[in-house]
Predict the 3D structure of the following.
Amino acid sequence: TSPQYAFAPMSWDKFVDVLRYTWPVILIAGVGGIARNMRVMRGNLLDNLNAQYVTTARAKGLRESAVIYKHAVPNALHPIIMYQGTVLPYMIQGELEAAIVLNIPTLAPMFYSSLAIQDIYVSGGFLMIYAILLVAGNLIADIILALVDPRIRLS
């Protein structure tokens, strides 16, 4: 953030200032994941479009858009949703790379330097945060998968 907003309370101007400096980090951290998700979704959708239940839906006379969006896409989303549960800690890793390249003062370079000087307490704290994010991400992914797929029940 700008020096005049460093210790200022949160306001609309401070929010806009933070966005002005964080958009490159968000872009760097997110673009790689989008490309991977597109490839996985394409492969899963092609597999599901050749499945028996899609052929049956087409034989019943459903429109092609209904076959794709009601039958093929929900089943193709399973691997994407489950992978997103593990992505939460990797977002911090992408932030580390962006913060080092763009020389942005964040917590990620502190984690990197604690690994370099073998500070086990700081490194352990960051690893604990990574573990909590991984568990939370998997829990959120399981809940979303239960909402998307009616075959999955919580009981």
About this structure: The mean pLDDT is 84. The chain has one domain: 9-148. Helices lie at 12-49, 52-59, 64-102, 107-116, 120-148.
